[in-house]
Amino acid sequence: MMMSEKEMMLENTVSAYENSLLNHCRYSMGEEWQQLSKRDLFQTAALAVRDRLIDRLIETEERYRQSDAKRLYYLSMEFLMGRTLGNSLINLNAYDACKDALMKLGVDLEEVREIEPDAALGNGGLGRLAACFLDSLATLDMPGFGYGINYEYGLFKQLIKNGYQKEEPDHWLAYGTPWQIRRPDETLRIHVYGRIETPKSKDFEYGHLWVDTKEILGVPYDMPIVGYGGRTVNCLRLYSARSSQEFDMEIFNNGDYVKAVEQKMTSETISKVLYPSDSVKSGRELRLKQEYFLVACAVRDIVRRYERDHKNALSKFASKVAIQLNDTHPALAIAELMRVLIDDKDLPWEEAWEITHDTFAYTNHTLLAEALEKWPVSLLELVVPRHLQIIKEINRRFLEQVARVFPDDPERLKRMTIITEDGESQVRMAHLSIVGSHSVNGVSELHSELVKKSLVPDFHELTPEKFNNKTNGVTQRRWLLKANPALAELITETIGDRWITELEELHMLEPYAEAGQFQQEFRSIKRDNKLRLAKVILDTNDVVVDPDSIFDVHIKRIHEYKRQSLNCMRIIHEYLSLVEDNQQPVAPRTYIFAGKAAPGYWAAKQIIKMINNVAQIINNDPRANEFMKVVFIPDYKVSLAEKIIPAADISEQVSTAGMEASGTGNMKFAMNGALTMGTLDGANIEICEEVGEENIFIFGLKAAEIEKMKREKSYNPWEYYYHDGRIKRVMDALNSKSFCTDENERFVWFYEAVLNAGDTYFLLADLASYIEAQERAGAAYLQTDDWTGKAILNVARTGKFSSDRTILEYAKEIWNIKRYMRNGH
Ligand code: 26W
Description:
Elements: H1 5-8, H2 14-27, H3 38-66, E1 71-75, E2 79-82, H4 85-91, H5 95-104, H6 109-115, E3 119-121, H7 125-139, E4 144-149, E5 157-161, E6 164-168, E7 181-182, E8 188-192, E9 195-196, E10 210-211, E11 214-226, E12 233-243, H8 245-253, H9 257-268, H10 285-310, H11 317-320, E13 321-326, H12 332-344, H13 349-359, E14 360-363, E15 374-376, H14 377-383, H15 385-405, H16 410-416, E16 426-428, H17 429-435, E17 439-442, H18 445-455, H19 457-462, E18 467-469, H20 476-482, H21 485-495, H22 516-541, E19 550-555, H23 564-581, E20 589-594, H24 602-619, E21 628-632, H25 638-644, E22 650-653, H26 665-671, E23 675-678, H27 684-691, E24 697-698, H28 703-712, H29 717-723, H30 725-735, H31 748-756, H32 763-782, H33 784-796, H34 803-815
Parallel strand pairs: 1-4, 1-13, 4-12, 13-14, 14-17, 17-18, 19-20, 19-22, 20-21, 22-23, 23-24
Antiparallel strand pairs: 2-3, 5-6, 7-11, 8-11, 9-10, 11-12, 15-16
Bound molecules: ligand 26W.
Ligand 26W is lined by residues 123-126, 129, 277-279, 281, 327, 365-366, 371, 373, 443, 472, 660-664, 682.
């Protein structure tokens, strides 16, 4: 007998959840309810939720297939998903049902949620953006799928010992994860190393013989991604590397058992660990293999799915497939698709190139020179010789085209070449990405302009139509509805719940910005959130903080350009004004920091030490105590951000203008009613435009001014040092024993970097303006009603910064994908 869809789909009622929980307890966990450990409870609850996701996943796939939908594949080395249980329950509209079912069984859902390890398969902004995009794609009922690597170890766990960062491995898969469905039947065989056999006949003009390769297996694991409302469940496909049996057996049969096992382990290291650097590239062979592994698995899987649905008509490929490159990390996909089309599918070069170019689009996420990927030709030759050959041919044809448009301009060819010739020959992955894509976008208005004007002006001149902007966004489901349930409820009571899927609706809050009752409730929610965070701080840092002080928050990766050190200098200034000049800050503040430094980034790690030393001195000085507290909360991650952001009064977004591509934390804070203290950089500019100048604190040099000072070499930090006593005092304090907790001369490096090495990040140039903006902010905070009004307007005016808006723009202007609603919805 056929079951109806309704009968088949598991329900979201309390009793249905109770049933599921008890069933999984017995038949999946093999336990009695009372015997379940905390971790078992999480597992059990997750399995109950997962059943519901799978029903909808199958239905969704069928819906796309029936409509022959064009699909978008988002290729990314990072997906910073965080926790899934609470998020899925909210998106399924089943949070209360599951909570009540657990309650009936004597268990608190909040506690169970805290057991779940974060899926920290990313470093920072770029990885979290990918996660927000997946949420929006599913919520918008769009066929958008992620492809990534199933790292066994996510981003390292950060401990603070004696003020220094220490790294520990994050073995997040130690107990397995209920959120992945293993698909062994769809395992792929990937080839690496080997050599090229020279083609023999003319038919082989671009032909190949890639031989003597080693084989690695790519085993897919699918993570269901449920959109809000639960209608659509897309998936994120993550690959684990496994050794191929045959390969091991060959050595094994030759009698070297240990070597066979060693080889097996080497192939499996490919998906072992996420590289913890978000800028300084290390040029390591393993990283290259990771990038190639992702790309090879994804491209083959995409082609296979296309052929399954389209019976060999590859000419239509680009009308059914869009591939987005999340920065250049997956750029080898361009060469891989060319290889598949030419070598495996026997297409002529021109046809393969048209398909490839029409399929790919590239997003740039950084202008930092040290973060732009370049791979030595010699390394590519070793690992992916066939791809190198293809890249060389792409470059040859490309340079020919450039020479036709700009004859007699050898300098231009040098600037634009994909493969550099002087010195160690290298492949510039950004150039490959631009040439192989039909769209190139930056992630905020300013950044997209800088991509065109400073990063790759020659490419913009050649193909201006490729370049466009897609200002980043964040999902309000996680960053408001889930992270700040009380504020979400107040908003829904006031304007209804449509903001959850249409964030511009928040504008309807504007009339309440000055309403006494609304203000009061808004303030009381903020205070509760601050109390909750104060509890976290007490637990992790053993520091008591005052929930009535300003919570001034600076959380993000630790990086010189993000200028945590500028914040630190300003804190030192306030402290010295207090203890030396008897000048009390207008309002007490709690300075909150969190963030990880790349393990190999010495200066960033020193900045962590500096913050912790300053914290120790200030927190233990009775003269400062009632006015200032400084805390560095260890082990920043998505789940910690969800606790910190709703409790913030001030959001520190103080990068050197022109260096932060967009920022997305800035959006999360504004959405939760924190006021931004920021430079005119990245998306801060657009936040300022939206919320209004009177509701944000802007300071510092503009990107163009910094650019000019760099060009003219006119910046001299000593001038600022000698002309401003405040600045001199801070620098001298850092150069003295004042903030050293044990050894002397701890921060001499900083003094040197700023005063004698040119102050690359313009700290001294912006410090005075920063101090003054902070003084304005402190005074403004005392005007309680005014401040609350500004905070409410920040919430009301962040509609633009939903990743739903971003995704709709990508879908319309780059991907050409549509929405596929379920019947009756
Ligand atoms: C090669 C190692 C490496 C790894 C990651 C180099 C560069 C990266 C990323 C580009 C760093 C990153 O996360 N960039 C951030 O992307 C966000 C999403 O677009 C932006 O909001 C941030 O401004 C940008 O720093």
